[in-house]
Write a structure and sequence with these properties.
The chain is α+β, with helices and mostly antiparallel strands and 314 residues long. Helix content is 21%, strand content 33%. The longest helix has 12 residues. The protein is globular, with a radius of gyration of 23 Å.
């Protein structure tokens, strides 16, 4: 009698990034499932949750690229948001119920003056309806159950906020460039309170996550059409961005055949490149072999070797 049979993974062993332009009313998890099925990929994951009522850039990793998702979660982001002044909602966006109203309708100079108070490192309390964990549960689940969720303020970084246009007397369109962990819904809520009234997000679009921007983004309609062009999925595969797209900000080191062999076996190496050793830092290093991404490695402080953490089987 033989041993238990190994179950073969469903789908293709393809790797890369899809710069997905997520439509309205689609959750991030739902988007990942849709893209994985379109590409018939064995494995998929996303970098940076985007609310169902938000549109825009949602980078989706396939195959070995899922090992680089953590780097994209640290990436800077850009948004365009329409802030509605005059009411506060349970969710701080248009999906929630109105819980408070105010007559305050600021003019453009008042908003521009207020924006200076929301740039730099600021303390921000996440929305009640958010994925933050409180006592082991997601805050939005507690909020949906009617519980008041006391969330602690967090330090976040907002690099720049620009007033793009006044849509009408109660709505203004802003552009926000920020670091990780910023809640645009919380920013709209706090802006309204700062100006002496209430506000919430009425429309939101993410325009950039790190190197992923609108120039290379593809919507669901376009990707679905490409999926029908050829039965071998070649048209879709041509849209994949390389795994390294998520790693542009870390130093790269090309390896010899022998060093690459050691890394594939999980062994640490001692780089011989003197210039690389001179410029070494404490962060991650992308190791490549013959022009292909091989692994992400980190320096071992004790012996000065590069230790592979995530090895790609490309």
């Amino acid at each position: 009698m033989g041993g238990p049979k190994m179950r073969r993974k469903k789908g293709r062993a393809i790797s890369g990034w899809v710069n997905f332009d997520k439509p309205l009313e689609m959750g991030s998890t739902q988007a990942v499932g849709k893209i994985r099925r379109l590409f018939d990929a064995q494995k998929a994951g996303h970098a940076g949750t985007l609310d169902p009522l938000a549109r825009g850039i949602l980078p989706i990793a396939l195959g070995a690229a899922t090992k680089t998702v953590s780097f994209m979660q640290e990436a800077d982001k850009s948004y365009e948001v329409v802030v509605a002044f005059g009411s506060q909602t349970t969710t701080d966006d248009a999906e929630g119920e109105i819980v408070a109203e105010s007559e305050m309708r600021p003019d453009a100079p008042a908003i521009e003056a207020a924006l200076a108070h929301f740039t730099g490192m600021i303390a921000q309390v996440p929305p009640q309806f958010s994925a933050i964990r409180k006592d082991g549960q997601r805050a939005y689940k507690l909020a949906r159950a009617g519980e008041a969720v006391d969330l602690a303020a967090r330090q976040v970084r907002i690099d720049k906020i620009s007033l793009l246009e006044r849509v009408d007397v109660a709505h203004f369109r802003l552009k926000v460039d920020c670091g990780k962990g910023v809640y645009i819904r919380a920013l709209a809520r706090d802006l309204g309170l700062f100006l002496g009234g209430f506000a919430h997000v009425s429309a939101l679009r993410r325009t950039r996550v790190g190197r992923f921007d609108e120039k290379t983004a593809l919507g669901l309609e376009k990707l679905t059409a490409l999926g029908h062009i050829a039965s071998d999925l070649a048209a879709l595969d041509a849209c994949l961005l390389p795994l390294e797209t998520a790693l542009d900000d870390i130093p790269a080191l090309a390896l010899s055949d022998d060093a690459a062999s050691c890394i594939r076996q999980g062994q640490a190496i001692s780089p011989s490149d003197p210039q690389f050793l001179h410029n070494k830092n404490d962060g991650a290093v992308l190791l490549t072999h013959q022009g292909t991404a091989l692994a992400i490695a980190y320096w071992d402080d004790q012996d000065g070797l590069l230790q592979p953490r995530r090895v790609f089987n490309l």
